[in-house]
């Protein structure tokens, strides 16, 4: 087994506190290993972004982390819980250990500062001893890494196209050689060709630089191509987790199967594109039993009464579904 | 809709002032202009706010003056709001030079200093009454709201359902009345409240420099006499304190109502999920305490 | 540059509108104010100054409105604003020339300082949302609802009087002759402190409120969250990301609000008998000195336009999106 770098344990994230709050992430366990690309997939509104920002404590109000642990294993062997460390400590770990490319990277850049300033200030904040010259050189190098000409360094965000801004954000994420990069739909504003081109670059970089990636998208076919492992989310819960090849070959959860039938795969066997009928549940009034049962084509009687728990099924894979009862023990 | 304590406080206070505007002159214990032999008396049981240099009862002046203040504020507010809706919504809905022209017009009126303009107009008028003062204020202070409404209309016009209505060949009037106006209610209301505040302060300011309804009372006239009779030099603090506090209270009430509307329009300003012990904070999502007893308390509270 | 040119064109249009208003308003005045003046001054008026007042009031009945308008414009371009009734026979331009420096010095400087202070405080209050700083809001709301002049009255009542450091009226000690020596400058500053303080207290609270709301709004923009994610020091996130962006709408708000603000601040001069345009306006209203009233209105409008232009330049420097390359 590979070395673990980030472990999410029993994470619950709410919008709002007290009465009237909704739980958007429910009891999530997730492990990220060193050097791996972990894909996170699910329909729009399934809680992918909430999970990513909740575990890094970047969720804007009214988001609240209700409970859970986010354990981060530092290089020196010590482990910290990101949810419990002091602000200063968290600030120090941010970006130097865990960098994030936000969904909608279009608005992620400060409109009144040059790209160079925004690339350089993060380097300066974390390694104040570097010379201004070295920081500039690094900024130039980063832009070239993502395929942007270095003379764009002194542009303002509004002078760049949407795709360029997303690349700048990816470049920025790599500025401090982080060990974990979280990417929330980093390529949605781009056309398919550019999307794949950027992802290729990313995977190459990962091989060279050795960071781990949490890659979020609702496009499962993209994940199948680029990630090592995939976790599927539905209504705030992880319902299946598997190596991407296994998941692609034989999805166990009916929801995963539905997702795979929602996007045309670029290679491999062609599935019938049926999609998933119905729409996700309202988080305020979740159905009893399996949250997916009102939409599930294979629902059993038990599904409407009892919640299936995520666990190792008999064939050794993680899934929360009564079709694949959890191995006892 | 959740009740908004700020707006509620403001509305209650406004209701009080409106009530005083109706019944104030009858409640007043004295005729506000009546002279007496009690010259420049400090507050007493008989004269709650003291008396002027002519022995007039200041409490009665403030009470009776409420009517003029509320009246001018309301009339000017209505006039300016109607104008601002006409100019602003039209400017936003019309494209091309007509819209640009209306927008330039409101910008011109916005930049020209309002109070000096009101002063030169009112002092050139053959006669000044509450009505003419209210009209002049209303006719010169619509520009700010027109500007806001124009921007809102512009963005509403690009919404899908409005585009669809236009594609269906609905008349401009129908679209403006039934598709656009309902979405502007909050903005119009907040503009009205803001203009009333401006009108009240302007009327009082005008009265303070000597332009007011002949023979009538408002809080500004009280202050005018206090200033011209050197109330300060004579230590007669009671002459100007009550009227000033009344203005500040009315102003605060109006601002509170506007805060309520602002929070309704801009959800980011709302403090929806405030609870003790949890501070919502950008950049550092709060983590609820894990102490089971506390956690339970929070969940049931 | 095209941005500034456009703004400049707009200010020219506004100046023209103000002049035109100024041309039409006196035509509402009942009777013949000039004749009254001539009777009062009995022969002390030159025919030239009578003529210029006739142009100002539009009393030349045999001229067409258009030709009245053009002679009025021509007169303005020569800097002739007529003669002041109150300070007869001093020309209005000269009277205003005496008052303007005081107003610019007091109202101009304090308005800018008030904006800067209020914006800075508002940035902090908005950033510390959800803490004790929120409790400042009701106080500032209350203070910003108080008319400036009334606050001046309270300040005089509380802080001046026999033995006080603060003089209650005037711009410098009686008996001094305006010049540039230290005694005079010291006296000027001493006299300006209390009126300036009054203007600051009332105007600062308004800017605190608006900047606070801008900060709250901007703080939930994505780039602020990104700045946090980058692990930047809190000061940098607050200043370079949140406040720097919240400042933009506040600066344009400042430009737009100037026309409202000057009205209130001018009145502080009345309370403190400070010899600027506000006090002159007060005297002109009392004496029905129409030429002086109109002259003051014109000068204030032009000053506000100039201040607006400066605010535009500031905005241009602050927001790269308004700058056009090439
Ligand atoms: N501010 C909020 N208040 C209440 N509920 C919210 C808020 N923001 C998001 N939610 C809810 O939380 C759930 C998860 O949202 P989230 O943005 O995490 O989904 P997602 O999986 O990232 O979707 P997408 O693919 O569209 O980005 C959604 O059902 C959404 O309705
Ligand atoms: S538990 Fe039942 S309802 Fe839920 S996915 Fe499995 S089969 Fe469908
Ligand atoms: Mg998302």
TrEMBL record, chain A:
Pfam family, one: ABC_tran
Keyword Membrane: no
UniProt xrefs under InterPro entries: AAA+_ATPase, ABC_transporter-like_ATP-bd, ABC_transporter-like_CS, Oligopep_ABC_C, P-loop_NTPase
Record-level Gene Ontology MF annotations: ATP binding; ATP hydrolysis activity
Domain of life, per lineage: Bacteria
Gene3D superfamilies cross-referenced by the UniProt entry: P-loop containing nucleotide triphosphate hydrolases
Domain spans labelled ABC transporter: 8-260
Keywords: ATP-binding, Nucleotide-binding, Transport
One GO term of the biological process aspect: peptide transport
Family of this protein: Belongs to the ABC transporter superfamily.
Protein name: Peptide/nickel transport system ATP-binding protein
TrEMBL record, chain B:
Signal peptide per UniProt: none
Main subcellular location of this protein, as a coarse class: membrane
Xref: PROSITE patterns: ABC_TM1
Protein's UniProt keywords contain Cell membrane: yes
Transmembrane segments: 7-28, 69-93, 105-125, 131-149, 184-209, 237-261
Residue stretches making up the ABC transmembrane type-1 domain: 70-258
Similarity section: Belongs to the binding-protein-dependent transport system permease family.
Membrane topology: Multi-pass membrane protein
Sorted UniProt keywords: Cell membrane, Membrane, Transmembrane, Transmembrane helix, Transport
Gene Ontology CC entries for this record: plasma membrane
Localization in the cell: Cell membrane
Single GO molecular function: dipeptide transmembrane transporter activity
Gene3D superfamilies, per database record: MetI-like
Name of the protein: Peptide/nickel transport system permease protein
From TrEMBL, chain C:
Subcellular location: Cell membrane; Membrane
Limits of the ABC transmembrane type-1 domain: 100-311
CDD domains noted in UniProt: TM_PBP2
Classification lineage: Bacteria, Bacillati, Actinomycetota, Actinomycetes, Pseudonocardiales
GO cellular component, one term: plasma membrane
Residues spanning the membrane: 7-25, 102-127, 148-172, 192-210, 246-272, 292-318
Protein's UniProt keywords contain Phosphoprotein: no
Protein name: Peptide/nickel transport system permease protein
Keyword Transmembrane helix recorded: yes
Topology term for the membrane: Multi-pass membrane protein
């Amino acid at each position: 087994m590979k070395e673990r770098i980030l472990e999410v344990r029993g994470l619950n994230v709410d919008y709002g506190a007290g009465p009237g709050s909704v739980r958007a992430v429910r009891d999530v366990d997730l492990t990220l290993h060193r050097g791996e690309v972990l894909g996170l997939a699910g329909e729009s509104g399934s809680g992918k972004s909430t999970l990513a920002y909740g575990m890094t404590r970047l969720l804007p109000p009214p988001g609240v982390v209700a409970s859970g642990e986010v354990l981060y294993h530092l290089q020196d062997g010590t482990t910290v819980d990101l949810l419990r460390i002091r602000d200063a400590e968290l600030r120090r770990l941010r970006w130097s250990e865990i960098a994030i490319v936000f969904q909608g990277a279009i608005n992620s850049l400060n409109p009144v500062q040059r790209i160079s300033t925004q690339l350089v200030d993060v380097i300066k904040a974390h390694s104040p001893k570097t010379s201004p010259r070295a920081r500039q050189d690094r900024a130039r190098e980063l832009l070239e890494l993502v395929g942007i000409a270095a003379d764009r360094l002194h542009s303002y965000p509004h002078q760049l196209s949407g795709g360029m801004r997303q690349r700048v954000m990816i470049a920025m994420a790599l500025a401090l050689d982080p060990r974990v990069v979280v990417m929330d739909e980093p390529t949605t504003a781009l056309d398919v060709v550019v999307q794949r081109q950027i992802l290729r670059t990313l995977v190459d970089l990962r091989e060279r630089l050795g960071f781990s990636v949490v890659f979020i998208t609702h496009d499962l076919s993209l994940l199948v191509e680029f990630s090592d492992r995939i976790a599927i989310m539905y209504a705030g819960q992880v319902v299946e987790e598997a190596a991407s090849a296994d998941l692609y070959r034989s999805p166990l959860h009916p929801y995963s199967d539905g997702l795979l039938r929602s996007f045309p795969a670029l290679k491999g066997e062609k599935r019938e594109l049926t999609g998933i009928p119905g729409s996700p549940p309202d988080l305020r009034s979740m159905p009893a039993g399996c949250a997916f049962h009102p939409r599930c084509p294979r629902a059993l009687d038990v599904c409407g009464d009892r919640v299936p728990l995520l666990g190792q099924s008999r064939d050794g894979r993680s899934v929360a579904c009564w079709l694949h009862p959890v191995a006892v023990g | 809709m959740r009740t908004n304590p700020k707006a509620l406080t403001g509305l209650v206070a406004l209701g009080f002032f409106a009530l005083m505007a109706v019944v104030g002159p009858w409640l007043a214990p004295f005729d506000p202009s009546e002279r007496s032999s009690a010259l420049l008396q400090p507050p007493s049981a008989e004269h709650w706010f003291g008396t002027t240099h002519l022995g007039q009862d200041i409490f009665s002046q403030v009470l009776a003056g409420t009517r003029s203040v509320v009246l001018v504020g309301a009339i000017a507010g209505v006039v300016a709001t109607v104008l601002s809706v006409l100019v602003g919504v039209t400017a936003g809905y019309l494209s091309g030079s007509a819209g640009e022209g209306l927008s330039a017009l409101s910008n011109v009126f916005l930049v020209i200093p309002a109070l000096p303009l009101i002063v030169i107009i009112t002092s050139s008028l053959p006669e000044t009454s509450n009505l003419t003062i209210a009209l002049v204020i209303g006719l010169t202070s619509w520009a700010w709201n027109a500007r806001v409404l124009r921007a809102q209309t512009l963005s509403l016009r690009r919404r899908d359902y409005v585009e669809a209505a236009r594609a269906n060949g609905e008349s401009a009037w129908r679209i403006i009345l039934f598709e656009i106006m309902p979405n502007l209610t909050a903005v119009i209301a907040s503009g009205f409240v803001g203009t009333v505040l401006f009108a009240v302060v302007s009327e009082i300011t005008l009265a303070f420099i000597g332009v007011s309804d002949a023979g009538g009372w408002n809080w500004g006239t009280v202050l005018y006499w206090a200033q011209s009779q050197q109330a300060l030099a004579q230590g007669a603090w009671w002459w100007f304190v009550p009227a000033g506090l009344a203005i500040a209270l009315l102003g605060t009430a109006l601002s509170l109502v506007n805060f309520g509307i602002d929070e309704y329009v801009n959800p980011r300003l709302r403090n929806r999920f405030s609870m003790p012990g949890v501070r919502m904070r950008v950049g550092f999502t709060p983590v609820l305490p894990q102490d089971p007893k506390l956690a339970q308390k929070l969940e049931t509270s | 540059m095209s941005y500034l040119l456009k703004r400049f064109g707009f200010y020219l249009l506004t100046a023209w509108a103000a002049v035109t208003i100024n041309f039409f308003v006196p035509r509402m005045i009942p009777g013949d104010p000039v004749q009254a003046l001539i009777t009062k001054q009995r022969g002390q008026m030159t025919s030239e100054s009578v003529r210029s007042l006739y142009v100002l009031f539009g009393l030349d009945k045999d001229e067409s409105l258009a030709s009245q308008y053009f002679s009025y414009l021509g007169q303005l371009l020569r800097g002739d604003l007529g003669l002041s009734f109150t300070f007869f026979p001093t020309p209005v331009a000269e009277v205003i020339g005496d008052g303007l420096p005081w107003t610019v010095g007091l109202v101009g400087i304090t308005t800018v300082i008030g904006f800067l202070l209020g914006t800075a405080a508002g940035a902090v209050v908005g950033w510390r949302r959800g803490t004790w700083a929120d409790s400042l809001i009701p106080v500032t709301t209350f203070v910003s609802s108080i008319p400036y002049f009334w606050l001046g009255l309270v300040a005089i009542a509380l802080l001046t009087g026999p033995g006080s450091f603060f003089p209650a009226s005037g711009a410098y000690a009686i008996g001094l002759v305006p010049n540039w020596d230290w005694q005079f400058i010291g006296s000027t500053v001493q006299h300006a402190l209390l009126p300036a303080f009054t203007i600051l207290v009332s105007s600062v609270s308004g800017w605190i409120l608006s900047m606070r709301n801008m900060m709250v709004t901007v703080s939930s923009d994505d780039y602020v969250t990104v700045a946090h994610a980058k692990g930047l020091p809190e000061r940098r996130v607050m200043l370079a990301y949140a406040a720097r962006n919240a400042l933009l709408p506040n600066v344009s708000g400042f430009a737009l609000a100037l026309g409202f603000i000057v009205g209130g601040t001018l009145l502080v001069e009345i309370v403190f008998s400070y010899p600027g345009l506000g006090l002159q306006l007060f005297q002109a209203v009392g004496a029905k000195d129409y030429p002086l009233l109109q002259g003051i209105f014109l000068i204030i409008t032009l000053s506000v336009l100039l201040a607006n232009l400066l605010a535009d330049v500031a905005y241009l420097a602050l927001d790269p999106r308004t700058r056009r390359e090439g």
